[in-house]
Amino acid sequence: MAGGASLWATFRAKAFTVQRLEAHLARSCVDKGLRRVLGAFDLVMLGVGGIIGAGVFVLTGEAAHTYAGPAVIISYFIAALAAVFSALCYAEFAVDLPVAGSAYNFISLAFGEFFAWVAAMNLFLEYALISSTVAKGFTGYFATLFGWPSEVLVHTVEGTHGLIIIDVVAFCLTLILAIILALGIKESTTFNNIVTTVNLASIVFVLGMAAPYFKTDNLVPFVPHNMGVRGIFRAASIVFFSYIGFDGVCTAAEEAKNPTRDLPKGIVWSVFISAGLYILMALGITGMKKYPLIDIDAPFSVAFNGVGLKWAGSIVSAGALMGIITSLFLTMLAMTRIFMVLGHEKMLPSWIAKVNARLRTPVNATIVTATVSGVPALLLNIDFLASMVSMGTLCVLAMVCCGSLWRQYFQPGCDIPVAPILTRLLLLVVTAALEGVALELKWPIAVWAAAIGAWLLTALSFYLLPVAYTSPNFSMPFKPITPALGVLLTVHLMSSLGWLSYVLFAMWQAIGVVVYIGYCMHRTPTPSQEREPLLEAGPTGSSEGGTDPNDAPSGDEAL
């Protein structure tokens, strides 16, 4: 009994500990031995390469054929808005806290190490599974480039119900990229810039070849009656994941020459450029063929075959290969930096964080990344876990948006009541979830309208709170509405995922909690050494007053 009480006391004291920004910077922004060589162009190319994968040649056609018709253009625009709102929150955190941990460090700054660990677990799942599935996708495109069947280079083990698929090509690709990453950040980003340029050139080629065959009649009806507005949002929830990749740019923060100036450019411009290309590709395929006739597996290749340009399909396959390589590259880069930071923070064994003195890269973290990416790519079919990755990714994005709001109105060391801020954040999430469920389950329109109205009132009510912090380095437009919209759209997309996603997601979170309580919690610094408990921060009353944050004690003084 005493042991349980002691465990709870430790959890309560350490799980929700926060610091002022200055103290967090002093602890996190130590020189880890990485080279600061990346400029704004390198960061933008990292983001664009990570976002524009093979899906640009496939997903556009599938979304148009199955869900939204020509209105998939609107779906991509809606998804881009959701990505921009989240990207702005990332940019705000990144300029204040330019460290390689990305969302892990951002959420740690806002809510403490427990929620940061939850985010890290979801990031690990996202990067590990995406890298494995993307690497497997390379094998199929590589085979079709030579006119072979897509499955010719893989072997499905009999009696495993398709769960074990030997894919040596995917494993070799993962290993090669890991070696490139280990050789140095400048060398590896130069490689990424070249491959991304080839990918962008193939997209421009496809758009140029599609233009002469564009027919406005193919865009009618723009919103098919059997799909409607619900189909547009359904397609938006699917294509939104095409924009995932901007978060990976933040993991290169400690290798940027001027992170305060260049990180926002890398994050936001990569989303803008990618959104423009996705929308143009969606317009191109829906203009070439009527949406019911679009092939969902190879939309552009089949469309070109239909107009006598069979050779153009090879260019599409080559472009898809380049997109897979750049997407996998950023995913693996992000995973190595997350592992490095978790080792530095003692959430994982410290040896993972070691940076090679000659190469100036986290070689140990790169080896771990190659293992957790390469082994599943070599042996397993993990497509059934894709929905869990989507849920985890959206959860992290929503947490960062909530963290942006929380930080604006609460700072450690200030005599600010927690309850009014926390209540608003919870209402924001609940009303966003209710809105999404109402639309997904086709509840009466009055329920949806009431949920949207409640969300809007909650978002506007943040203006009644005194502002405790404004970033001196980045001015987010229309705050607090911008991060509130980020919460709305990410939570809405979470509500569109199936029940299996929730079950798998809950199981993964439970594993994360067990690991934190059994391992991480006992290794991180105690509150008396570096941190202060959030649960004891400020009054808990409902008063909406607060003191000037500039008069608050600095560093880690008592909350």
From TrEMBL:
Protein's UniProt keywords contain DNA damage: no
UniProt keyword Lipoprotein, yes or no: no
Membrane topology note: Multi-pass membrane protein
Keywords assigned by UniProt, alphabetized: Membrane, Transmembrane, Transmembrane helix
Pfam families: AA_permease_2, AA_permease_C
InterPro entries membership: AA/rel_permease1, CAT_C
Residue intervals passing through the bilayer: 37-59, 71-91, 103-125, 163-184, 191-211, 231-254, 266-285, 315-340, 385-406, 418-439, 445-465, 500-521
Protein location: Membrane
Residue numbers spanned by region Disordered: 528-559
Domain Cationic amino acid transporter C-terminal positions: 474-523
Family from the record: Belongs to the amino acid-polyamine-organocation (APC) superfamily. Cationic amino acid transporter (CAT) (TC 2.A.3.3) family.
Descriptive protein name: Cationic amino acid transporter C-terminal domain-containing protein
Record organism: Ostreobium quekettii
